[in-house]
Amino acid sequence: MCKGFAVLQQTCLERAKHIKVKFGTLLQRPDHEHTENVIPFQKKPENAIPLPQKPENAIPLPQKPERCLETPPKYDRPSRAEASQWGKALDNVLTNNYGLATFRDFLRSEFSEENIEFWVACEDYKRTRETSKMAAKAKRIYKEFIQTGAHWEVNIDHITKDVTVRNLGRLTPMTFDLAQRQVFALMEKDSYRRFLKSNQYREIIK
Which whole number is the average pLDDT over 14-22? Predict the structure, then answer.
């Protein structure tokens, strides 16, 4: 009886050790049944396009000016003899529709169109007869060409500028006359001479 009990006790101890070893192995083995259902973390592709972010010190885009220059209308091309008259006086250029359009295009190509645009605006103002329309046009001309820092501020002396500002208090067709004549003289002395040597003009009179 004692011998049989000893054998049984030894057998139980060996089975307990076996179960302990097997249980430890199971603890170290990964559970494939559950890990197969886990969605792996996806790394960002190397060629992914990053989303644009606005820099803190980004410079805002300039606002579009209130007045946009329009493409000049197309007129019948003048004869060579007619275009040759443009070379005698700036007045001959500005009083001809094709000449005015060509001269404006030339100044735009030089980024110096403020003088001719001011001159054209003044001519349009002088043809206006309704008081309400005159006031609106005078205000626009002042904002765009006369006031300091205007987008197309013309180069006139301070005396002419002061006279023009005073004239705005009592509108007449001649409100901008002094400033217009000074700007005309600037064009006649500078840009008009360059225009006569330009490819635009030479192409017309050849």
Answer: 55
